[in-house]
Structures are given as structure tokens and as C-alpha cells.
Amino acid sequence: MNEKKQRMLELVELLNHARRVYEQEDAEIMSNFEYDRLYDELLALERELGTTLGTSPTVNVGYEVLSELPKERHERPMLSLDKTKEVERLKEFLGGQKALISWKLDGLTIVLTYQDGTLVKAVTRGNGEVGEVITNNAKVFKNVPLHIPYQGELVLRGEAVIGYHDFEKINAQIEDVDARYKNPRNLCSGSVRQLSNEVTARRNVNFYAFTLVRAEEMDFGNSREMQLSWLQGQGFDVVEHHVVTADTVEEEVAWFASKIAENDFPSDGLVLVYDDIAYGQSLGMTAKFPRDSFAFKWADEIRDTKLLEIEWSPSRTGLINPVAIFEPVELEGTTVSRASVHNLSIMEELELGIGDTVQVYKANMIIPQISENLTRSGNVEIPKACPVCGGATKISMDNETKTLYCTNPQCQAKQVKAFALFVSRDALNIEGLSEATLEKFILSGFVKDFVDIFHLERYEEEIKNMEGFGEKSYVNLQNSVKRARETTLPRLVYGLGILNIGLANAKMICKAFDNDPQKIVNATREELGEISGVGDVIAGTFVEYFAEEGHKELFYRLLEEVELPEKEDGEASTQIFAGKNFVITGSVSHFANRGEVKELIESKGGKVTGSVTSKTDYLINNDVQSTSSKNKKARELGIPIISEDEFLSMME
């Protein structure tokens, strides 16, 4: 008995931690399959022992959200749904009742309130009892009506989602691959809870209604189907649904399963709700679940296969992830032969070994995962050398998860960011070289340093035959490289990626040394320190960079590849923030992020720091009246606190 109680305690802690990491940090420490398995084990123990802990995930619906959005308590708690993977259980639930079966969308649940035909409030589900008010953001959802014909008070619930197409498009625009969103749900959650609805508007968030909570003085004939039909008539998109009985539910589940691969929106199962409203309400609810509805999760199609190898995949952060390569199997209509193992902790938990018989499935019928290792030989050796550069590896514990890293700072896989900066808009401005493409070129040996980018014709045939490339892409890339040869010295210096040297600093330094490359290479700390806006730190990193012969040699080789104008004109007039120090805090609405504001200030000769001091000239904060620590400090020192609009007016 004591062992079972101890196991129950372990499961509560483990499941709560996994959910907290997933919901609040957008990270994943275990697969959905593993979470469900442990959840079911906990539930069985609680039933056997007749004990349920107050912190158990079987009775706690969710966690408090972490944001600066206003909070509001829901009129009625928004409960989770009881779930099953067995169609027979759905038949039992249905009995002689008629129900609606619909997609269980994987996004963010939102409650909308309309008064006098106008949207007046939108609140997220939050932890089920308290949500976040996101009214301004809901007003820019792609398909939410701001005004409807009905003039009474209307309250409804639905799911905010971002489709796979938009998810891939938005992720592709994020240059830092490690900063990209892991799945549409994470992207949707971040988009819906933005402090600026301008960002939300760019994310193409859609809303699908699934429950009518209240509509004053309306008669729906005691039918949920009629409610959804009426909502459609009011201009809402409602979740796709069919009427179902115990006799037809198996057929309907199969129909939805056949359609999931065609869907652009994420779904993690189905929902059944009794059509008879009064009957459903008469059943009441448990501590966690309403009794009028039931969730169905896909019974994962699991196949046994043989593990052939573990491929170690380095990333630009130095993280080396294990990827399982196995004998190809058919899953959900496609052939799969590889699955991410995510990290060393999961790999060791599965005790993976070459030749083992493993069971694989597709999470939500999409993402290949290993669910179980049947033979558990555990013979996989963790590499002591990076597969890309041969540098030493080390094992680290990150967020209670064991991970593998490459320790070589010069590892080619880590240099992707440096190459991305070199070809970026403010540096050489070479189009067609995304981080993903650069990574392919680096790992293929086409690019070892910046100069190689100007000589990709050496690998013309190989590049044309690469996936995603072809004759046209290659020609466009070469034309872009040709245009990049005509550049300026500040752009070239900035593109070197010298620590602390932004484009604005590069311009100031080049101007101070008459745009003479020889003077720039041989600049001393004292000479650099005399330049307005260049402090000891910048001077130190600049001198240290060119103190290395390899850096000098690379710079001289690059000079042979480019054509520079004899003089840099028109720059002095644009340096309107020269000698001015800014601090930026809070959210921004006219820019994608605070980094863009920083970039603009530096391009105009200014400097951006992280804390307010006596040297700060302006604090930019859209919430001018905020009582934040930065605002308080600025007021104490008499430093102007300006909004984003006031900052933009200074530009004029």
C-alpha cells in the first residue's frame, strides 16, 4: 500500500511538472503517449486507493497563466472533458441519446460576450476558473464578427486556432530557428495573448464556436444542433459537427479519422455532446468533468519495427538531439522511418539500443514518436565528439532534462547565425540564403567561411540538385550574390559579427577612420575611445577581433570580393540620435519587437541599454503612467518617459 501511495505522489509531481513546462514554457519533456499512459496509471491508483491528492492533475484543470493581461473570473468554471480511446465507451455514453460529434480543436478556448449586437468582451479559458481578458485581440481575429444581428446578451465559447499553412509561413519568417514555435497551438497561444493586437492581427487567428452559453429570450427547441445553426446565422464559423447515435458513432469516428490528414487546422481528437440540452444539464458534473459531453482521443496506430541507428543532429545552439532511425513502417497512411527522441533523458528512459524492437506511432496522427521499447538493450553510446566538427561534447542538465552539447565554439553548425548575419539585410543583403539553406550548405561543405559565399558556382550542380532548389533558385541566388558585391564598408564591418558592433557603430567607426580599411584594422583602443558613442567595451571587442590574424586575413580576402564606393555620403544627416542613450521597456505596437526599435535607434547614431541610469536620455514605454521599476527610476532621475508615438515623432 505504501509503495502505491509513493507511486501516486511521484506521478502527481511528474505529470504536473510536464504540463507546467508544456503550458507555460512551450517545452516538451515527454510525449503525449507517455503523458496519457502515466495519467491513466495515476487515475487507476486513485480509484484503487480511494484517495485523490489536492494537487492531482485528475482534479485540477489547469495552471495560472503568466502574463500582464487583466484577469477575470468566469461565471461558471470551464471544466475539462472526460476522455476515452475506445469507440465502445462512446456507445455507452450515447445510450439512446442523440448527440453532436465534432473536432476537438487544439488551440486556445475563448469566451466571447456580445451586448446590443456588439462584441464587448473576450476572455481566455485560463485555468478554467480565471481567464485573461483579450478583447482587443479578439477584435482582430480573422473571422470574428464585431457586430451581429442579435441585440440581446450573447455568451458563447469557441476555439482560437492557427492553421498549419499560416503556422509554417509565420515560422519561416523567424530567422532564428531555435526561436521558432514548436506547433500551431504554441503559436496561437502566444498570438492570442499578445499585449498588442497589431501583432495578433498579423497571425491569422481563426475562431470556431462550439458552445452557446447564453442567448437571452431565444428558444432553440432544447437542441444544441439548433444553437450552432443559429450561431452560423449570426455570422460565426462553428466547428464542423455531425449528428450521431450509438448506431452511427463508429462510422462517424472513422469518417473524421479519414479527414484529419486533409485538415489545415490542428485537432487532437473528437468531442461528443448530447443534443438534448435539458437532459445533459440534468446529469450535473463531477469535480472535473461535465457529464453531458465526452472527448475521444485517437487510438494510436502502433507498429513494431527495428531500431537501426541513432542519428545525432547538431543545432546552431550547440544542442545535439538524438533522432531514431528505424525500418520503414506504414502509419496513418504514410511511410515513416525516423522520429525525434528529443533529448538524452527520454532516450535513456526508453533504454534504446541498436537492433531493439520499438513501437512507433503518430502523435495526433501526425508526428512520429516512439511509444515503447520492447527489448530495452540500452546499448546506444552517447558520442564524445560532435558529428559535424569533431569537437568534444558534454552532457548538461537543462530544466531537469539531460541534454548533449558540442563544446567547440567554432563548430560549423554553430556558425549558422554568424553566416545569417553576414547575408542579412543590413550587412551584405544576399537574398535566398535563409538559415535553413545556409545550414545545408555548411553541412555539405560548400561554405566554410564568408568568402565561400561569393564562390558557390563551384558547387553549381550539387546545389541545383538539392531539395528545394533548382535552376531558377540557383540563378536567383547567384544574381543576389553578384548584387551584394557592391556594398559599403560599414555594412561589411557589421557583417563580420564583431561582438557589440551594430550597424550604427560600424558607420561611426568607419567614418572616424575615413573609410580606410587599413586604418580600421589597425585602430587602437585609445583611437576608438575618442569616437562619440564608442565606449571602452566596444573599443575592446573591436581591437580584440582584429588582433587575431585569421580575422584580419578574412577581412582582407573579403575586400578583394567586394566593390566599395570611394566616399560614404549622406550619413551625418541621418545620425539624429548621435550621443543619445535610450532604454526600451514594455510591448511595442509599431514594430515587430523591441529589437527592431533598438536597430532603428542605432542606425540613427543612438545607443540602447538595458537599465535606466543617469546617462539615459529617454525611456521608451507605451505605458507612460506605469509604476514599473524602470518608470520609477526614470522619474527619480528626471528622465523623460516617452511613448512609441512620441519616439516616432522625434524621427520626423
List keywords for this structure.
652 residues, alpha+beta, Helix Hairpins, D-amino Acid Aminotransferase, Chain A, domain 1, OB fold (Dihydrolipoamide Acetyltransferase, E2P), 6 domains, 7-stranded antiparallel β-sheet, 22 strands, 35% helix
Give me the number of helical elements: 24
Number of domain units:
6
Output the CATH homologous superfamily of the largest domain: DNA ligase/mRNA capping enzyme
C-alpha end-to-end distance = 75 Å
Low-confidence runs of at least 5 consecutive residues: 61-67, 568-573
Largest sheet: 7 strands, antiparallel
Beta-strand content estimate: 15-25%
Architecture (CATH level 2) name of the largest domain: 2-Layer Sandwich
- Average pLDDT, all residues: 84
How would you sum up the global shape? globular
Q: How is the CATH topology of the largest domain named?
A: D-amino Acid Aminotransferase, Chain A, domain 1
Find the count of extended strands (DSSP E, 2+ residues). 22
Based on secondary structure, the structural category is alpha+beta
CATH class of the largest domain: Alpha Beta
* Radius of gyration, CA atoms, in whole angstroms: 29 Å
What is the helix fraction of residues, given as a range?
25-40%
